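Quick one, T. Sequence first:
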Amino acid sequence: MGVNIKTLLYQVPGGMLSNLLSQLKEQKAEDRYYEVLEEIPRVRKDFGEPPLVTPSSQIVGTQAVLNVLSGERYKMVTKEAKAMLSGQYGQTVKPFNPEVVKKAIGDAKPITCRPADLIEPELKKIEAEITDWKEQDEDVLTYALFPQVALDFFKYRQAQRTKVDVSAADTQNQAYPV
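C-alpha cells:
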C-alpha cells in the first residue's frame, strides 16, 4: 500500500485498517478505501470522539464503511452504533452529534447512568442454582462464568471425593474423566 502521510488525519490505528480492508473486499469495494479513511474522523466526531480501541474502533470503522457504501451518511446504522449512541458503552469525551443520535435511535432516551447499573443482580440466583455443588465461594463465580463446564467439574470433584463413579451418561461430554 505504501506510505500515506494523511494517516494522522484519518486517525486509524493499524488493527482497524485490516478490518476495513476485509469489509471492503467482502463488498467488492476496495476502490472506496480512501473515501472510508476520510469518513472515519467525521464518524468519530459524530460519536463524541470515542477512543479508537476495540470495540469502539470497530463500531466507528464499520459505520464509516456503511456511510460510504450506502452513499448517505447514517442511512444504515449498526445495532452496535445505536447502542453506542444510546449510551450503552458509557460516556465519550465530547457529546454525540444530536442530529446523528436522532437519526440513529429516534426518540429513544439515551441512558446517562453507568450502563452496568441497569443489569439486575444475579449472584443470589446463581448461588441458589448450585447449592448442591457449592463447597467454596469461588464455586459460585466459576458457575457464573462457565455454567456447563463448572457443573461437569463439580460432579467430577464429588465423584473423586466420594469414590462413586459418575454415571456413563454424565461422562460422555465430561471434560474431566473419572
